[in-house]
Design goal:
D-Maltodextrin-Binding Protein, domain 2; 3 domains; 42% helix; alpha/beta; Arc Repressor Mutant, subunit A
């Protein structure tokens, strides 16, 4: 049934007269009368009876009114939701991230995102492998990722979110940890390294080994760990030092002393599927840059 006709019925019932309802609806009185009579003929029932100078709903009219009020309210809610979605103010967004994101730029922005997009269902998925995050964008399980080393793929669009230095995380008892001053990259040749396994995080492994090779250092592997927590635990236990984004120092792992590495930087990227910039994703990007 035409929602416009339901609105006519509601207006007549609330005004109690054709004349008042016509003024409210900005229609002529004859036009509204014809619309009401056409609806009654279509339904085969009388919807209103005269009571003095006014109109009152019949039993059939009351039944229609109950449904009409609910349907009009539902339609208004639907239109409101459609407008919000078109403006990027509602919907579902799944964000992949690694620790270097949540401890840095993404973590700083989450409160702002929640305040600016309160009606958005924001789902955060922590992943430990940059390649896995890029794959999640491509298979649709992620809408956007905050990651350091996105896979090079023409189907992926990227934007730089933030830059930060790398740091060497040292066992607190090691001689290199006696100062917290920035250290040259050459210190990587003075201590074994705790690395991500090449097979599970090839990009992160390659970033660290390339840093060593560019400084003329052949890295010595003291141990390997698949999570930040494991790597820092191995560092605290004396297996070696770890090279990670400087933002990880906020974890304050006991037995571990961080030192920034001079003249180094790592980059956090926003990654999404090329050509898939929805209104919601646009708002997310804007909030992340605020």
């Amino acid at each position: 049934m035409d929602l416009r006709m339901l609105a006519y019925v509601v207006a007549i019932a609330e005004e109690g007269a054709i004349s008042g309802a016509a003024r409210r609806l900005q229609l002529t009185q004859p036009t509204l009368s014809r619309q009401l009579h056409a609806l009654e003929r279509r339904l085969g029932v009388e919807l209103f009876t005269r009571a003095g100078r006014g109109l009152t709903p019949t039993a059939a009219g009351e039944a229609l009114l109950r449904h009409a009020v609910r349907m009009l309210a539902d339609a208004e809610t639907a239109l409101h939701d459609v407008r919000l979605a078109a403006e990027g103010k509602t919907g579902r967004l799944t964000v992949g991230f690694a620790g270097s994101g949540i401890n840095g730029a993404l973590g700083n922005a989450l409160g702002r995102l929640r305040a600016e997009l309160p009606d958005v269902d924001l789902f955060l998925r922590e992943l430990f492998d940059d390649a896995e995050m890029s794959a999640g964008i491509l298979d649709g399980s992620l809408d956007v990722a905050v990651q350091r080393l996105p896979v090079r793929d023409a189907r992926l669009a990227t934007r730089v979110l933030a830059h930060e230095p790398l740091a060497i995380f040292l066992p607190s008892g090691h001689s290199l940890a006696r100062t917290s001053e920035p250290a040259p990259v050459s210190v990587l040749g003075q201590i074994p390294l705790v690395l991500w396994p090449r097979e599970s995080a090839p990009h992160a492994y390659g970033e660290i080994t390339s840093l060593c090779h560019s400084a003329g250092i052949v890295p010595r592997v003291g141990a390997q760990g698949r999570t930040v927590q494991t790597i820092l635990a191995l560092v605290a236990a004396g297996f070696g030092a770890a090279v990670m984004a400087d933002s990880y120092r906020v974890l304050h792992r006991e037995g571990v002393t961080p030192r920034r590495l001079t003249d180094t930087t790592t980059t956090l990227h926003l990654v999404w599927r090329a050509g898939a910039m929805s209104p919601l994703l646009t708002r997310f990007m804007t909030a992340m840059s605020g």
